[in-house]
Amino acid sequence: MKITTKLWIGLGVLIVLSPLGLLLPEHFKAGAAWGEWGVDEIKELAGYVPKGLEKLSRLWNAPIPDYAFKGWEEKGLSHLSFAYIISAIVGLALTCIVALLIGKMLARKGE
Amino acid sequence: MHIPDGYLGPATSGFFYVVMLPIWTVAAKVVKKTLKAKQVPLLAIGAAFSFVIMMFNVPIPGGSTGHAVGGVLVAILLGPWAACIAITVALVVQALLFGDGGITAIGANCFNMAFVLPFIGYYLYKALSHNAPLDSNRRVLAAGVAGYIGINVAALLAGVELGLQPFLHHTADGQALYCPYGLQVAVPAMAGEHLLIFGWVEAVVTALVIKFLQKQAPELLTEGRG
User: What is the CATH number of the domain that holds B171?
Assistant: First the structure.
């Protein structure tokens, strides 16, 4: 088997395992990464919401915010895990396509 | 380490976009000269690996989370400039599609994770594995150390960038406008958690994949040879 085939399979395994990145923090009651809190968390931590932060934090509405589907916030961990896997598939596919296009554009032909 | 929108003031965000533009330009030029057509799939695999490994949040029980970036590994396999492009793609997808890292912070996040991290890691790996046979354990160790140091320097930089904000932007009565924590909080937090936990994750991931490739495809390890 070609090594690239093995590596693609490896990526597939990582996609399937990706919900660990959601479930382990949940299990160990770990919160957001340092400096990546939402506005509500900031208010709790710092006692106020910095004005510029409040404004800029609403700048972009990501289609799949935090690797979860909009409106699924209250659903259980199994739903969130499912959304996480779908996010991994979509994100990985898009990353691959863009990197392939850039690579094709730049790479030396015929070698 | 994905700085969100609102944590950096406009001066810092703009500064890092300006810094990254020539870096991306040089990366494109270098990759154009060095990347072979048959390496293109590996570039995509590298970008995809970096994307997905960053989804594996590792918890500090009762505290925060963090993750590996996989960038040193990509640099070892394809060189630091190609790694810069691969990680940039992953970071832009994360920001646009998933709101992981801010749009305004793409410059800063790319500087930390797509530039400093792979370059430090790559040259450290090269220095530590100098002349070592492709199948040697020294290469595995060198990859681990390079991963550990690379992600820690990137995390330290993110801490400095965040920690400078209250100093750069605040209201007359001293309230921060952007990241509310200064250097004395941000730097120990970012550096500490990466030195203690997340740096080791990057080290283990990098070393394990290099070990696997030594057995399966040693020809992929010739880029960082020297």
Answer: 1.10.1760.20
